[in-house]
Design brief:
This protein is 53% helix and 1% strand. By secondary structure, it is mostly helical. The chain is extended and about 160 Å long. Keywords: Membrane, Transmembrane, Transmembrane helix.
Length: 1167
């Protein structure tokens, strides 16, 4: 039996099986049947074959004679044509002629086209006009159209003629199709030529703006519509117009007035809107920035950069409406610049970097921050974050806290546009700006200007927040590139490129990054090698650094500042020991001030100031050595900062030379040539001497060693400066947007302000700080100094002005509450129980008691005296209730006292609002109310008061009394209705707290002082409450439950029932709480009845309640005199009114009169 082939069979196995099959003679499983080919005339299987195919065995394979080698490849026989047998040929016929006769190529078709001679055919053209294009005419208006139709008819005749010629040819259909396509194209070409000739003939050379010459290139065919642009431009708008026009700028960013006629060779005219006006609008610049032409993209981005620079400088404030920067940001400038940074052309990319720098970086803000670096607390700065705005997320409403999205998850879910709209810097970081800047610095290696712009952009990003600074440090290879290329450890002077040379802007970037936190500073010093760079730059003199003089002074200044920031964390102090000889050498040149005519004098002064700031921070760190050493011994393994390597022995050796410098600068104030430089350096010396706070003798020696006349000389030079008076005139900067805040230091050198060169603020701050330190060390030094009160006053004033400065320049909308709070806190010590303050208060109150002899007012003077005595206890009470701010207080204390090893960051906290609420003096009272009172179904369940509650409430009321009498301005920020609502907690906290004698006396005094204000508006909802009616409902319920007719509580609930307030509260008393009318025993002499009776009541439901309470005896004169008289007055006015009224009112009047007839109360009838 034959087997089937297997996949594993070899060729020999297959051949062997085939031979076995043929030998056996078995029939095959499949047979081959050939179908006849009718085209070749073949017959079927049973029919005869041609002679040449007879006897062929196509399906037989001979295996035995199979050769070992493959046969050579020969071409297959050609296919036979079915028409070959019927074709007649001649032996002597030329093959070339036969080929030409039967050739159907396109060239053969074109060679047969014969056109008709139309040279003698007349053609009528339209009349000549001065228009650029011929006028469109209807065919019924002129006969010239017939001429044109004749031309077209002649072309159609050509088509039909050629069609007949080629149709007669018996070649094939392909020839006809090719001919038709060709003639159709020819027709369109001829039509175009005719109409072009007509158009050109209409516009003669006289009508064109220019006369074309024969030698001009490509002017053989005229294009009138394009030549129209060569005509003269229309004249600009007249100067008398008042219509607002679109702003247009030149390439330098200068605003071009609409009336200015500039020459066209400047390249400022274009074919867009308003072609007569020179310059480009913002919209046109945006369009050009996405052009395919490289030069247009570069030019538009450069122009935008110049516009942003001038807008930041305030040059458009008086001539443009709105903010240019805000308009550009709303139009998508951030995305435009980010896309341009990815351009492969270096010129476009460089222009985008320059525009981004103009948008983000304000040079004057940076100069201002550098100028204030050496001031007291000048190392610290606020983050340049946008104002915090709480967004309500509807998706999270009603969800459990565990199910709500975190802030980080919400931030990740936002798109780039949403993030950039709220925060421009954060939006750029989300768009991967830092990796692109790293690529530009590392791979592209652009020009020096672009490198400087990139470094300044990175500095601005680092100032944004600590998280942004961390992203700069974490960007792969970014800081490594900066350190290796722009802060090398060795270099040689080169004028070709700034790569390989140390740059001051790179050192400033490191300083700003170090300001963000001590961890970032440690990474810079240790991981990135900043400590090694400091050693190389500061161990030599500036003129030995192989750099330009200005750059060498700048980079050494920034190196000192970076070192000062690190020393402010207690770091890099070992470097102080290593470079001590270099520091002493640098100090020896400080007292030799360069002349004012020297162009390098400002840079040298800044270098001296940075050096003194470094010594101040090192001194502060050395003062913590002993405390940390003792803390490490007593910590017992607990976490404690290690003691720094410097101690008092390393810093006290400099005091002799520094003291001599200070005395010399004070004496030089009389020299006009050295006065400005001396006034610049004196404040930093004073701040440095204050750093010797633990050393009890050095500051005293400073003040005692300088004659008093010299100190008055210092004040003499600051007498003409007024910071507070000019604070309101300082502009806040029109180009500062919500998503890109700034410091608004535009033109700070030429305007009055805290940071102006003539500002006395740094001098007064340093002197007040030093005097406060001296008097705090030893009280006996006060008599020697003779300026104790003045020193404390100056220090307090300087701190207050500093506080105002922070909010005027950074967050104006948050400054009101903080200023009032700081005034209250500072003025708290001004009346520390002295007899003069008490006597003044008693005299003031004595004049008021002449008008009102109430016993409650007679005791206010005694209450003030008791409150002044209790000021330490009051302070302790508020500190107890502010214990949740202890961590913030500790951080602030460490920064003030210079506890550098405990400082976490020199970047101040984000300004999210006031540190304390505006009603912070009521805080103990509100805390007690929250602890003891629980709202339940409109009522109030009162629990037992915690221990010490009475004392806390007493101290709170005493403090409020002091503020109301002596510091009324401090509480003006709290609305009168808010004061009334918070004082109501005295009655709501407990059932008997208001009955305590101290609480009674203090609340009476506050009630009298608070209710005298005519601005008390109970229609305004108190902060924290939906409406005042809800609070009053709780008060009335509490009165009915626990008051027992208390006179104070009665006056408290009677106050909102005056006629000028809402009717809702009177309706609640006479409708739902009628029982309280039996205990409101306030006499008529204690109130002003006019406030309850005038004007007459016009509420009909309330009048009916008044009448019902009077008739039924619910309201009696003996129980509630005030409301009895008020209700009786209103009812009488209503019943006996002669004014016309509605039918319902008249019906109510008649009803009341009928009921009066049946009254039996003689007293009521007499009224």
């Amino acid at each position: 039996m034959l087997r089937r082939p297997k996949p594993t069979d070899s060729e020999a196995d297959l051949l062997r099986e085939q031979e076995h099959f043929l030998t056996s003679g078995a029939p095959s499983a499949a047979s081959v049947v050939r179908r006849p080919d009718k085209r070749r005339g073949e017959a079927g299987e049973g029919e005869g074959r041609s002679g040449e195919n007879e006897g062929s065995q196509r399906d037989v394979v001979t295996i035995e004679d199979l050769p070992d080698q493959l046969p050579s490849l020969t071409p297959a026989p050609p296919k036979k044509s079915r028409f070959k047998a019927s074709r007649v040929t001649f032996e002597d016929e030329d093959a070339e002629e036969r080929l030409d006769r039967h050739d159907t190529h396109i060239s053969a078709v074109l060679s047969r086209i014969v056109e008709r001679d139309t040279s003698s055919t007349p053609i009528s053209l339209p009349a000549f006009t001065g228009m650029a294009f011929p006028k469109v005419l209807h065919r019924s208006e002129t006969s010239n159209q017939v001429k044109v139709n004749n031309i077209i008819s002649s072309l159609n005749f050509k088509i039909s003629y050629h069609a007949e010629v080629f149709a007669a040819d018996a070649a094939s259909k392909i020839v006809w199709r090719s001919c038709f396509w060709l003639t159709n194209c020819h027709f369109h070409l001829q039509c175009y030529a005719v109409f072009t000739t007509m158009d050109a003939s209409v516009n003669t050379e006289e009508d064109l703006p220019v006369k074309p010459q024969k030698e001009w290139v490509h002017m053989d065919k005229l294009e009138p519509e394009k030549l129209e642009w060569l005509r003269d431009l229309p004249e600009p708008r007249r100067k008398g117009t008042k219509k607002a026009m679109q702003a247009r700028f030149d390439f330098a960013g200068t605003l071009i007035p609409p009336t200015e006629d500039l020459p066209t060779h400047l390249g400022l005219h274009h074919h867009g809107e308003e072609p007569e006006r020179a310059g480009y609008s913002l919209q046109e610049l945006f369009l050009l920035s996405r052009s395919q032409v490289i030069q247009q993209r570069t030019l538009s981005l450069s122009t935008l950069a110049n516009i942003l620079s001038k807008a930041c400088a305030g040059e458009y404030v008086s001539v443009l409406k709105g903010s240019v920067t805000s308009t550009l940001l709303d139009a998508g400038l951030l995305f435009l610049l980010r896309f341009a940074l990815d351009d492969s052309v270096e010129g476009v990319m460089s222009a985008a970097v320059h525009a981004l720098k103009a948008l983000l970086v304000c040079a004057e803000d940076e100069e201002c921050l550098d100028c204030t670096f050496s001031w007291f607390r000048g190392l610290s700065s606020f983050p340049l974050l946008p104002s915090a705005q709480e967004e309500e997320d509807e998706e999270d409403e009603g969800l459990d806290e565990s199910m709500k999205e975190t802030a980080k998850e919400k931030e990740e879910r936002k798109s780039d546009h949403e993030v950039a709209r709220q925060d421009a810097v954060k939006g750029l970081l989300k768009m991967k700006l830092l990796p692109r800047l790293r690529y530009i610095l590392e791979v592209v290696r652009p020009s020096p200007r672009v490198v400087q712009d990139v470094l300044e952009i990175l500095t601005r990003i680092a100032r944004h927040s600590s998280s942004s600074a961390t992203q700069v440090l974490d960007c792969p290879r970014l800081m490594e590139t900066v350190m290796s290329e722009f802060l090398p450890t060795s270099w040689s002077p080169s004028s070709q490129s700034i790569y390989g040379l140390p740059l001051s802007s790179a050192m400033k970037l490191l300083r700003v990054l170090a300001t963000s936190g001590r961890h970032a500073c440690a990474r810079l010093l240790n991981s990135l090698g900043a400590s090694e760079r400091l050693s190389h730059l500061l161990s030599a003199e500036p003129n030995e650094l192989l750099l330009e003089p200005t750059e060498s002074l700048r980079i050494t200044t920034e190196a000192y500042r970076l070192w000062a920031v690190a020393a402010g964390y207690g770091q890099a102090c070992k470097l102080y020991i290593d470079l001590y000889p270099a520091l002493v050498t640098a100090l020896q040149s400080v007292h030799r001030l360069p002349p004012a005519s020297d162009p390098l004098q400002p840079l040298q002064l800044q270098r001296f100031l940075a050096l003194l700031s470094l010594l101040t921070q090192v001194t502060h760190t050395a003062g913590c050595h002993q405390e940390l050493q003792a803390g490490m011994v007593s910590s017992g393994g607990e976490e404690c900062p290690p003691p720094p390597p410097v101690s008092w022995g390393h810093v006290t050796g400099l005091q002799t030379s520094l003291m001599g410098h200070l005395k010399g600068f004070i004496k030089n104030l009389d020299d006009p040539l050295q006065k400005d430089g001396s006034l610049t350096l004196i404040p930093v010396y004073l701040v440095y001497l204050e750093a010797y706070r633990p050393c009890t003798l050095l500051p005293g020696r400073c003040i005692g060693g300088c004659p008093l006349l010299h100190w008055f000389n210092v004040f003499f030079h600051t007498r003409s400066s007024s910071v507070v008076c000019n604070a309101q005139a300082i502009p806040l900067g029109p180009e500062i947007t919500n998503n890109l805040p700034g410091l608004a230091c535009m033109g700070w050198r030429n305007r009055p302000g805290l940071v102006a060169p003539s500002s006395p603020f740094p001098l007064l701050t340093g002197l007040g700080l030093l005097l406060e330190t001296i008097t705090g060390i030893h009280k006996g030094l006060s008599s020697k100094v003779g300026l104790t009160v003045l020193g404390v006053f100056l220090f307090c004033c300087c701190l207050l002005v500093l506080y105002i400065f922070c909010f005027v320049y950074v967050q104006p909308k948050h400054r009101t509450n903080e200023v009032f709070m700081s005034i209250s806190l500072i003025s708290r010590e001004g009346h520390s129980g002295g007899p003069e303050a008490v006597e003044l208060g008693e005299l003031k109150l004595h004049e008021e008691t002449q008008k009102d002899t109430s016993p409650s007012l007679q005791t206010v003077g005694a209450l003030l005296r008791e409150a002044c005595v209790q000021l330490p206890s009051i302070r302790g009470c508020f500190l107890t209730h502010l214990a949740h701010l202890e961590s913030s207080v500790i951080v602030s204390r460490d920064a003030l006292l210079g506890h550098n090893p405990w400082i976490k960051s020199h970047l101040l906290p984000e300004l999210t609002g006031p540190i304390l609420p505006s009603d912070w003096p009521f805080l103990p009272l509100l805390s007690l109310y929250e602890q003891s009172g629980v709202s339940d179904g409109g009522g109030l369940a009162v629990e037992e008061l915690p221990q010490g509650a009475l004392q806390a409430v007493t101290h709170c009321l005493q403090w409020l009394l002091l503020l109301e009498v002596w510091r009324e301005e401090a509480l003006k920020v709290v609305l009168p209705v808010a004061k009334f609502a918070r004082l109501s907690c005295v009655f709501l906290c407990s059932s008997d707290l208001f009955l305590e004698r101290p609480v009674q006396r203090l609340t009476w005094g506050l009630f009298r002082l608070s209710t005298k204000l005519d601005s008390l508006d109970l229609n305004v909802p108190p902060p924290g409450l939906a409406s005042f009616q809800d609070l009053y409902s709780a008060l009335v319920s509490q009165y009915e439950a626990v008051s027992f007719g208390d006179r104070l509580f009665s006056c408290w609930v009677l106050l909102p029932l005056q006629r000028r307030y809402s009717t809702t509260m009177r309706l609640a008393v006479f409708g739902e709480h009628v029982g309280m009318l039996r205990s409101l025993g306030v006499t008529l002499e204690q109130v002003t009845m006019m406030a309850f009776t005038s004007p007459p009541e016009d509420s009909l439901p309330l009048l009916r309640l008044y009448f019902r309470s009077l008739v039924t005896g619910t309201l009696k004169r003996s129980w509630c005199p005030v409301l009895y008289v008020a209700a009786l007055s209103h009812v009488n006015s209503f019943i006996f009114s002669q004014d016309a009224a509605a039918q319902e009112v008249e019906t109510a009047r008649h009803s009341m009169l009928r009921k009066i007839y049946y009254l039996t109360d003689e007293v009521l009838l007499s009224f």
